Known about the structure:
Blueprint: E1 3-7, E2 11-16, E3 23-30, E4 37-41, E5 48-51, E6 57-58, E7 65-68, E8 71-73, H1 77-85, E9 91-95, H2 108-117, E10 119-125, E11 135-139, E12 142-146, E13 155-161, E14 170-176, H3 179-186, E15 192-194, H4 195-203, E16 216-219, E17 222-223, H5 233-246
Parallel strand pairs: 4-9, 15-16
Antiparallel strand pairs: 1-10, 2-3, 3-9, 4-5, 6-7, 7-8, 11-12, 13-14, 16-17
Helix pairs in contact: 1-2, 1-5
Amino acid sequence: MSRQRTIEKEVEVPGRGLFTGYPVTMRFRPAPAGSGVVFIRVDGGSTVRIPARIDNLTKRARRTSLRNGTSSIETVEHCLAAVRGAGIDNIEVVLDNAEVPSIDGSSLPFTEALESAGVVEQDIERQYFDVTKPTRVAEGEAEVVAWPGEHGRLDIIYELDYGGTNPIGQQVFRFTIEPETFRDEVAPARTFVTEHEAHQLRSAGLGQHLTYDDILVIGKDGPIENTFRFGDECVRHKVLDLIGDLMLAG
């Protein structure tokens, strides 16, 4: 078995929250072996620790959020995907506000920060979560199916299908997660919304600070005042989100 890993030194990522627009500084810090991924809020005159585990999930629309008591941390999935993509087991993620910085809506800024921090092995063997029998979760026309696979390896096949009248249409992406392939093929894929969804979010008071440079808005003729990084960027970002959410298995 391989050894657990953490980062070598602390590194900082400033920005604004995707939904709230709150200014925030996030710091990745080394963590002891066996401690896992822990988010820490240090604003408001107190320190609140929120382990990245499914037990701490709180219901939110369009994002993954964690809660401990009255304190929550919003939109953690892009950060968690970067941690998984870098092969890091133990890390502290310290924030001075309620939402992880969005930057460009992808995992790439977090991936680059973790690379600059360096990675070190620790003295405890890595633990694995193995799927032992087929498992299915479905709601409406959406479903996720997990099948047993090779030990220590995560393969993802994602079919995104918004239908023929939607500007995104159908996209399929197959991916095996490794640090190099994650950085090049998934980490740069950005959050996206259709033009109709963007108007709905604005009407609900969300994302008021965002411009077409900050988030990928897709109109009937493609990205508005922006360009795709991949021809299938939308499905790649869905894979990114899924990787981040799977980290909540601990």
